[in-house]
Design brief:
The complex is a heterodimer of chains A (254) and B (229). With 254 residues, chain A is α/β, with parallel strands linked by helices. Chain A is built from seven helices and eight strands; from the N terminus they run H-H-H-H-E-E-E-H-E-E-E-E-H-E-H. About 12% of the residues of chain A have low confidence. Chain B has one domain.
């Protein structure tokens, strides 16, 4: 019995190896129906031990040929199929690119009616480049300033704001006290005139201030490009303020 | 997605990749795959940069950043090819272009890997000058690794021709300097990529000044020496 035990184990192992090889071949290329050939195979000469009986009974292949017989020529092993799709690093890179694309889209979606996005939501004052044309407004102050020639100038009215073609998109909200670091220049006014009247008025604080003459006009640093033409009725409806210069008498009506 | 597989080859098996370029194996396919990958990565990084300003700037930078690298390639590739030819190289223009594109692709991959960091700083800081310098730093690192890759590739690809090998190495070094100067000037010409927060969106900004002076000014402002006006 002891002498036979190793040969039985060998036979079982041979059967196992053959079966595995057969299955691998079947995976690589579908075999033609071989059931009849298998059924013709003789039963194993020696019954396996009881505990191994069940697995061995499932084998339909005969035990390996004796060592004296020449081994059957094995088919050339085919290369394993390459898994489809790019390798790991490339796949990871593709996912990273996709995630970045999603992130870029998300941070560019406006989340309020002013068009603020996540990417531009931080307080802007630290990011500002101070240059001519920069429009700022301190958080708790209604006044809007524009930077011109090294100074910040107060834009004295909404008419002036519109006249100089500013939009709310141009206004950068800065923290209180931001302007303390800079020199404040003369306010930026808009000058109003109507076609039917020779008089020019300066709009300031919602009131029209008559500019007495050309000399005063120039002395105040105004230029003709700042004069905005409006209807005379609009000008008449505006309340009168102090004349420029003050004390020049009652202002004429347009 | 299969175009990305070439990146795996470049990063993991560069010697085989260089050997294939030397032997002229599938250069057309390689060039196409690298072009697609690098354009996609540059566009993404450009979009991240431009997000600091506005949606228009995001789109503009996504287009302009790939353009920057490809235009620099077009401008600089003939110089490398003809100088190599003079000093005894037997490489074709396609081999040269493939090598330079490989360097550009490595740069693009590194930029993409830096993109989450840049995005993080975009969302957590608001210093324009800092953000600009951060990007200059990222481009410097990615660019240096890219040209190192090119230098290695040139050594492998031109290993066959011993004649003038030393001179060709010097040509590559010199060419890298030219490439850096052309690239920086091209970037200056195509700016803005980030967009100053106080300015309206512009597709191209007026010429004037230069890249290096601007960097010094930005460093000066970050260190508190002066305010950019």
């Amino acid at each position: 019995m002891n002498n036979q035990q190793p040969s039985r184990v060998n036979q079982i192992l041979d059967l196992l190896v053959e079966e595995v090889e057969e299955r691998m071949r079947a995976h690589r290329q579908p075999l033609p129906p071989a059931a009849p050939a298998v059924s013709k195979m003789p039963a194993p000469p020696v019954a396996p031990p009881a505990r191994l009986a069940e697995p061995v009974e499932t084998f339909t292949r005969p035990p390996a040929a004796p060592a004296e017989q020449p081994p059957e020529p094995e088919p050339e092993p085919e290369p394993l199929p390459v898994p489809p799709g790019p390798p790991h690093a490339a796949r990871l890179m593709g996912r990273l690119a996709l995630a970045l694309l999603v992130a870029v889209v998300l941070i560019n979606i406006p989340f309020n009616r002013y068009g603020t996005t996540l990417a531009t939501a931080l307080p802007e004052s630290a990011a500002l480049v101070i240059r001519d044309g920069l429009v700022v407004k301190e958080e708790d102050d209604e006044r809007i300033y524009v930077y011109q020639d090294g100074k910040f100038r107060w834009i004295s009215s909404m008419d002036a704001f519109e006249h100089f073609d500013f939009t709310w998109g141009d206004v950068h909200i800065v923290e209180d006290g931001f302007l303390d670091r800079f020199e404040i220049g003369k306010p930026l006014h808009v000058l109003l005139k109507c076609q039917a009247s020779p008089h020019i008025y300066r709009l300031e604080g919602g009131m029209k201030r008559w500019i007495r003459d050309i000399a005063t006009f120039e002395a105040e640093g105004h230029v003709w490009e700042d004069v905005r033409f409006v209807s005379c009725s609009y000008l008449r409806d505006l309340p009168d303020g102090e004349t420029v210069p003050p004390g020049s008498g009652p202002p004429p009506q347009p | 997605m299969n175009n990305l597989a070439i990146i795996e080859t470049i990063l993991r098996n560069r010697h085989q990749f260089f050997a294939e370029i030397r032997d002229g194996v599938e250069l057309g396919r390689k060039i196409r795959a690298m072009l697609i990958s690098s354009i996609a990565f540059f566009a993404l990084y450009g979009a991240v940069m431009g997000s600091t300003h506005s949606l228009w700037q995001t789109l503009s930078s996504a287009v302009k950043l790939p353009l920057l690298f490809l235009a620099t390639l077009v401008v600089c590739a003939p110089t490398l090819y003809f100088f190599n030819l003079i000093f005894g190289s037997n490489q074709s223009l396609a081999q040269n272009v493939t090598l330079i594109l490989a360097a550009i692709t490595v740069t693009a991959v590194l930029l993409l890997s830096f993109a989450p960091i840049v995005l993080f700083f975009l969302l957590t800081t608001s210093g324009y000058q800092f953000f600009k310098l951060l990007n200059v730093g990222v481009f410097t690192v990615a660019g240096l690794v890219g040209v190192t890759f090119l230098s290695q590739g040139m050594r492998v690809v031109s290993a066959g021709g011993k004649e003038g090998a030393g001179a060709r190495r010097n040509v590559v070094r010199l060419w890298i300097l030219i490439y850096a100067f052309v690239g920086s000037q091209m970037a200056w010409t195509l700016r803005p990529f980030i967009g100053a927060p106080s300015m309206q969106f512009e597709l191209f900004r007026q010429l004037g000044g230069n890249f290096y002076a601007n960097i010094f000014v930005s460093i000066g402002e970050i260190l508190g020496f002066f305010t950019v006006r």
